[in-house]
Amino acid sequence: MVGGRSSRALQVLRYVALVILAILFLIPFYVIVRNAFSTNQTIVAARWQWIPKEWDFGVIPSMFEDKQLNLVNALVNSAVISVVQTVATIVLSLLAGYALARLDNWVGKLFSALTVFTLMVPMAVVFVPMFVMTAQFGWIDSYRGLIIPVMFSAFATFMFRATFATFPSELEEAALIDGANPFTAFWRIVVPNTLGIVAAVGTITFIGAWNAFLWPLLVTRSETTTVQLALSQYMTSQGVRYPELFAGGLVAIVPVVVVFLVLQRWLVQGVETSGIR
Amino acid sequence: MIGIMNLNRRHLLTAASGLAATATLAACGSNKGDLGGSTSATTGSTGSSGGAKPVLNQWYHEYGEPGVKEAVQKYAADYADASVKVTWNPGDYGKKLGSALLTKDAPDVFEVEQGGTLDMIQQGQIADLTDIVKPVESQFNPAVMKRFQFNGKYHSIPQVVDMQLLYYRKSVLEKAGVQPPKTFAELTAAANKVATGDMGGFFAGNDGGVGVLGTLFIWASGLDQFDEARTKATFTQQQFYDALTAYRDFSKTKGLLQSASKEWYDGSPIANGETAMQWGGLWSMPDIQKALGDDFGVLPFPAIGAKGRVAVPFGAFGACVNAKGKNVEAAKKFVSWLWIDQEDKQVEFADAFGTHIPSKTALVQKASKLKEGPGADAAKFVSENGFTNDIMWTGPLGDAFGAAVTNVIKKNADPAQEFKKVETLAAAELKRVKG
Amino acid sequence: MSPATPSAEPATPKASWWRVFRGHQGRNLWYIGFFLPFLVGLVTFVYIPMVWSTYLSFFDARNTIQPTRFVGLDNYRYLLNDQMFRNSLGVFVVFALLIVPLTYVCSLGLALLLQGAKWGQAFFRSVFFLPTAVSYVIAAMVWRLSLFNGARFGMANSILRQLGGENINWLGGTTWWYWPVVISLRLWLQVGFYMILLIAGLNRIPQDTYEAAALDGATGWRTLRYITLPQLRTSTVAVMMLLLIGAFQAFDEFYNLFGSIGSYPPYARPPLVHMYLISLGGTQQDLGLGGAATVIITTIIVLFGLGQNWLLGRSERKERG
Questions:
Q1: CB contact under 8 A, C282 and B95
Q2: What is the value of ipTM here, to two decimals?
Q3: Which residues of A touch C55 (CB under 8 A)?
């Protein structure tokens, strides 16, 4: 790996490729920003404008002032739902994933099979019965209805199981022999060593919860509107309002992008220490 | 977090100054009931501050015109005999309503296109409203009432009539020396004559018009979907196939604008000067008028072929009552009050925001936008040239029909062969839905 | 199952079975307890709805969940004869054949590019990873309304015209042009995630393996072919499995790219979208057909999953043996 001339040329090529790709990856973000701060005429102008001739910075403030839209309320709802769902998913799946990694009899096999099967079944196929049951429980238009039915994640359990399967069991073993019960051993010894994967799964769950659309569409009425639903108001059967739609999109992605940039360092580490490889 | 939420909600309710004080309180009462789900009936009727007034939940789909939501909330607040809570539903209203009707958390009063589907009627999801509609049926637009009636019964009251029609730029057509098209041949000629690099000739959606124009080809070629007794499809004939191939040929010319800044149901393409003619909705007329002033006219879809006739599709949202609701009688009283008695509200609802046609014939005169010019023309089209899907034109049949039309127009399939399958399916579907 | 009798004598066979089952210090019972809350959720919100859907699939269940008219296998027969449903399976196959290999190649490419970068690694990694945070709804909005809009103002069309080409009606359905739109959308959204998984895998390859290879004079492609790829096997297997599962769940990008308020064109319908359209209401709410579609789709997915598992297991056994 010594730097000869050819490898220096290679390095330059590599950076050229990286920069081009980075620009390509960032274009959609730029388009959201551009459209959010443009007039409708600019967006549908005959020729694509990389830099709009006419800017309009009034759309976002006016959205926040719109009482009927009640964007602040929708943002709060989305935040509560996403945080609670993420915490609940992590707690449930940490326990379940640990159980799958340590249970080595037929029950463990059965549980594993049930989990993997769920991983493969798309949620859309059970939408209607799931919705009817949620209604039976009286959870329509409530946080419960938005969170509980979707907080059992086979994906999270699967990720945790893979991590715990590679976690050396000597430490737990020592604690158990000292008389700790399995829960204490799990909580005191295993969990503190797996915070990376917790961050990884947490980020992914949070993003999924924040971005959810179809389930909230069915379950909410007017009290628990989420950001994604509030956004959809700009697409009606009478037409689409472009600047508002993209401004709404911008408002909806900023919080999640921030969470993401803060957590991503742990996320990468988490995936690296996990058994997914 | 929960504290902040409640604060916001109260803030919102007090801020909505248009609402009467009683309505505000009632809304709070029904909020509580909603979260409880199964207990909503009891908390709603005994615990609410409105005394023994029943609580009704009413659903609308999202109307895009500003002001409609506030208006329907005001109508609800004006009603004295029940506390009516309006829910406004952006997004896919049909799916949201359909799944809600399977549960007990369903609205008491709601709007449905064409006054309810056959399945809704057959499964007893929507209440029989014949006793309140029958006595006044002659006041309503006859074409709409014909569609709303099934086996002599009404399950819905038409709220407002919508329609699609052809918009054209007068100045552009004049400059090119062409007349507003009455036949499809004239339409294609005109479209190709006026089309330039900057402006398309005719636009009907970003799918090339296949989606919205599909069933129009049946009516405009002089045919109908079914026979009188609804035993078989009657459109699978040469004149219909000729109409499809005529459109296919047209879609290969520069006259048909394949895509534009917005869909057909938005007035922007013609308003922005992207096209000289556009298939659009009556609801877009205010936008188009604002952009073009007097420089536009409207027409029905032109006749295709020798036996053709001009045609416009119309539709009407109808107010339905949930047959399995807790307060069916109260709900029936409310819809009868709003959509039969309150004519001022009906006119305002149709006329003050977008352009829609009041469903009662006598009220059309009172709608300012329909008094003269293109609005008056449009209102005439519905009664004279109006068509709408038969109640037994089921989802699978519509799907198969749409796929066949797409195959013929976009993939050059042979129409006779494609529609043979549709014909078979139609017979099977008709048998199936009759039970 | 035998009743729980922890105090039973160790001599009887029943009791010794129980001792094995409960594990040392009763650990297995603890583990089962750990799993129970999750299990309750799975049963309630996945398995009961599945069973219910299956039950409905044998009935004429239009607009009802308490059907009375039993129709046997009619719904299955109807679906399997339905041209739309069969087309939808075709759409899925094309989608899977395109998206699975493309995602793998692109994410591996990005991972390798990043691996060799001396500086700015964290920055570029963040950039490639960032789209993962965006929802399908918003991404589809950008793709459909701005980048690949069929009208003259779309970005792709503007560039095409500048290059002397003509506007393409990307999502119009006349041509196959909608595939690049669908595929690029999902690639943008998910490549970063799989890139991270593969970077983790690459980092686990011991550095001295490369050094030894370099001493032997191996460079470029040969290193990739003979060192990197074989060493990356386990990561590849996991990524491929996740990709395949993801491909089966193709729904959101299609639904958001092609659907408009209450309607969806007859083309570009993967099975889940078709099922959603026929069973959720609006024009049609046939829960019997929806149930049958659920059973058919789930069966296909599980068979595929088992098949892939078996194939991978076989090649692994071959390699070891």
A1: yes
A2: 0.87
A3: none
